[in-house]
Design brief:
Layout lengths: L1 E10 L2 E12 L4 E5 L4 H4 L1 H11 L8 E7 L11 H11 L11 E3 L2 E2 L5 E2 L4 H10 L4 E5 L3 H4 L6 E5 L4 H6 L3 H7 L1 E2 L22 H13 L3 E5 L5 H5 L11 H13 L15 E2 L7 H5 E2 L4 E2 L1 H4 L4 E4 L7 H5 L2 H6 L1 E6 L2 E6 L3 E6 L17 H8 L4 H4 L4 E5 L4 H4 L8 H18 L14 H6 L4 H13 L4 H18 L6 H18 L4
Helix pairs in contact: 2-3, 8-18, 8-21, 18-21, 21-22
Length: about 525
């Protein structure tokens, strides 16, 4: 006999509907699975056969053929075990319920018949809803995650022996058993373990972080080891605006696919902070594999990607940042197709000014000029051109370390950042722009217009410092953000001065390499 049930697979971070077609005929006993299957999917035949046997199900000896369609789409993951088991029971003669075409089945089977959780439930349930399915049967451990998606009913199943009971239910009975999606817990305020209140001194670094967070500007810290570069950077998520529901869902989808979603939380509430080691490979950063999965850039989407000891990363890894910093996405081309992963992160990097880390303090720095030039030359100009703000970190005074100075908490900084982001939202309404860091071309003249006095001042600085066109645009974008933080509609002289000051360290350092 023949049966057809529906499952959902993953392609990148998106779900794709898959038909599990089962046919059982008389003949020599065999179990054949077709349809461009990854090894873990092909192994489902052994898991399903053993779990059904141990649950007390029997079927007559014969030729079992299972086709996962569309056949040209590569199927990965272990979530096809449950639809295959359901298809076998139906092909063995169990009457098909009236809701079968409206349901999708997702789950991995253990040899004892236990239904185990799988990764990527958010993307799978979203695809089921997009395909206008009414029911989604999931492992019980995944139910809480599935309930995040509204517009579809979620049913949990713990053991394969419950399959027959479920397939005997009518539609009305199934409606009573399932839970309507969208009833997830209320949004929680982000809870961070760190706060800028703990950072003594380094007011320039904290101010630069505030400007970067307000306008979405990429940021580079330069300074000796132990001056607080990492400490300041890892607190940047605490001053970013609270995540919207759409942002939380997008972040959670990526973490669900990578198996990093906390089991007690169906949605991520805090913005991510990712800090890969400088030994990371290109694939670890961008994502990839035979069946591509997201990398560190996608895991940082919606939050901060921090690369400490920036020049120590391989040249290939640094160059891999170019396209994502511009397009806010990672595009991977494989024989099996083209994959797109989100990469909408705030990029922050930190580095020493020389190999030993003490330059320009010649009492401690023993690096030669050629060593310093070689070290700084590891960062290609195209990457530096994508970094709007560059500031130095200096040693902290003893009195500051003892907490004698007043330190502002993250909550106060976040309020100013949110107000600046709201001004940008209103200003850019009806345009493709979201943040000041994205202003380009004709929008630069439209949104960063200068009065006559500021125009003369900027012209003089531009000519004296021999700025490039890219540097000109970067200064204006940063000045626009500083004006937004001040609540000013017009870019003033003080805003330009601060924005130009964020380039002095870069100019001073990299002129050595020229």
């Amino acid at each position: 006999m023949f049966s057809k049930v529906y499952g959902v697979g993953l392609r990148g971070i998106d779900g794709c509907l898959v038909q599990a077609e089962t046919d059982i005929q008389d003949g020599l006993p065999s179990f054949v699975m077709v349809g461009a299957l990854a090894p873990e999917v092909r192994e489902a035949q052994d898991r399903v056969r053993t779990s059904l046997k141990n649950a007390g199900f029997r079927w007559r000896p014969g030729k079992v053929t299972i086709n996962l369609s569309p056949a040209g789409l590569r199927k990965t993951g272990t979530g096809f075990d449950l639809p295959i088991a359901a298809g076998i029971l139906l092909a063995e003669g169990l009457p098909a319920p009236d809701w079968l075409e409206e349901a999708v089945w997702i789950g991995e089977l253990g040899l004892s018949g236990e239904v185990k959780p799988v990764r990527g439930i958010l993307s799978m349930v979203l695809e089921a809803r997009r395909q206008r399915k009414a029911f989604c049967i999931l492992p019980e451990e995944n139910v809480r995650e599935g309930l995040v998606i509204p517009g579809i009913r979620i049913l949990g199943i713990r053991h394969v022996r419950h399959l027959a009971e479920l397939l005997r239910c009518g539609r009305e009975e199934l409606l009573l058993q399932g839970q309507e999606g969208g009833c997830q817990e209320e949004a929680q305020l982000e809870a961070y373990a760190v706060d800028y209140e703990e950072v003594q001194g380094q007011y320039l670094m904290k101010r630069a972080a505030e400007v970067a967070a307000a306008g979405g500007h990429n940021l580079l810290y330069i300074g000796a080891a132990g001056t607080g570069k990492t400490m300041t950077a890892e607190r940047i998520p605490t001053i970013l605006p609270s995540c919207t529901l759409q942002e939380r869902l997008e972040i959670s989808r990526i973490y669900s696919i990578c198996g990093l979603l906390p089991p007690d939380r169906p949605l991520m509430h805090a913005r991510p902070f990712r800090s890969p080691h400088h030994g990371a490979t290109v694939q670890a950063l961008t994502g990839g594999g035979r069946s591509p999965v997201p990398g560190e850039m996608s895991l940082a989407s919606g939050g901060v990607l921090f690369l400490d000891e920036f020049p120590e990363f391989s040249r290939h890894v640094i160059d891999a940042l170019r396209q994502p910093l511009e397009s806010r996405k990672v595009v991977l081309s494989r024989v099996s197709g083209r994959y797109e992963f989100p990469a909408d992160f705030l990029f922050v990097a930190a580095m020493n000014p020389c190999p030993c880390g003490y330059y320009p303090d010649r009492r401690r720095c023993s690096c030669s000029e050629s060593q310093i030039r070689s070290y700084l030359g590891r960062l290609p100009r195209p990457i530096l051109d994508r970094i709007d703000i560059c500031v130095s970190s200096s040693p902290v005074a003893f009195d500051e370390l003892r907490g004698k100075g007043k330190t502002e908490p993250s909550a106060a900084i976040r309020r100013r950042v949110e107000q600046a982001r709201e001004r940008q939202r209103i200003r850019f309404a009806g345009t493709p722009l979201r943040l000041n860091s994205q202003i380009y071309g004709e929008y630069l003249e439209r949104f960063c217009r200068l009065d006559a006095e500021e125009e003369r001042f900027f012209r003089r600085v531009y000519e004296e410092r021999e700025m490039s066109a890219r540097a000109y645009a970067r200064v204006l974008r940063v000045a626009r953000t500083i004006a937004d933080l001040d609540g000013e509609e017009q870019i003033l002289h003080r805003h330009l001065c601060e924005a130009i000051g964020y380039r002095r360290q870069e100019e001073w350092n990299w002129k050595k390499t020229e």
